[in-house]
Amino acid sequence: MASINLIESFQDFKEAENIDRSTLMKVLEDVFKTLLRKKYGSDDNFDVIVNDQTGDLEIFRRRLIVEDGFSEDDLAEVEYSEAIKIEPDYAVGEELYEEVNVFDFGRRAILAAKQTLAARISDLKKNGLLQKYADRVGEIITGEVYQIWRKELMLLDDDGNELLLPKSEQIPSDFFKKGETIRAVVKKVEMRNNTPYIILSRTHPSFLEKLLEIEVPEILDGLIVVRKIVREPGERAKVAVESYDDRIDPVGACVGMKGSRIHGIVRELRNENIDIINFTTNTQLLIQRALTPAKVNRIDVNDEKNHVDVYMDTDQVSLAIGKKGVNIKLAQQLTGYGIDVFRDIKESADFDIDLEEFSDEIEEWVINEFKKVGCDTALSVLDLSVEELIRRTDLEEETVRDVRRILEAEFEEDGSDA
User: Which CATH number fits the domain 136-203, given the four candidates 3.30.9.10, 1.20.1290.10, 2.40.50.140, 2.130.10.10?
Assistant: First the structure.
């Protein structure tokens, strides 16, 4: 049989589940009809037959038998005297089917065809993989750590496809070993230099949202809606939820009995603190809830500037700001309002002085740095240690100590005058 075996190429097709038989046939037809056009100038009278089980390929040439001397097109017609040499029973008007020996194309042409076929298969695989994961953006998938590099991890999915988890998309305290199974969300899919890249993330808000869907059936059923999620990966996250059923407490449902539902998510996110708050259209109440765990005394809202001034007891200011300012930063992202926190001294019996009163001795930008962290009065600064002030404001130690000396001197003078 004058055929060429392409079983290796067919095996490539079978391994790519997203490539169906009709696509396979179309690709093969295109590849070999290109060879036919190069050799004969046209592929109109040729049939390509492929056995998709064995990988054997055969090509047949069809020509109409005409009387001797009446052939006008050698590609489409054959004279009777030539036809009966192949098969004596042929008659004028019948079609002559003649098998084409594919090796007549030449070794180079055959190798080129196989290379073209392999390239087409590779492209189909890539496009299939791209489409598969483009449809799964935002979904959680599980992968096995296959390779560990300084800037990223390579994972393999169940089908052996390569996925990337960049360092920037990992929680700071993440630590993985080769062979370990991890979960992440598909962040984006892109083609670089004709190669599909599937980028995963464990820091994106959608990862937390999908984890909540898994743990909280009411979210998956649509009874509870996640209105917004903001995260500082590995540190803290705030989730605003709302219930469409008055009988369901959205916060309680998300946390679960004795924290049973939220604990698994916290472990997955490397002990990230998660504040679940009840969403409301009441701006003041939403800001108050967003500043959890701090307790707010009063709020002054400036809707025109999307800004609020929040007043609270001295011991609550540090809670509102949080470690490295994370809590107030997330509260601002969640509410969409700029938030300044101030120590509420209306009910305080202590004599205090606004920091602005010291503008002749302390530079304005230094005063502003203190005000950003809620220290707008002399006592609010003196109530905190030098180390705490340095950590919160990022000011130099010398600057902080100079400010404290100025403030302490003022109170000493007031005490001596009394």
Answer: 2.40.50.140
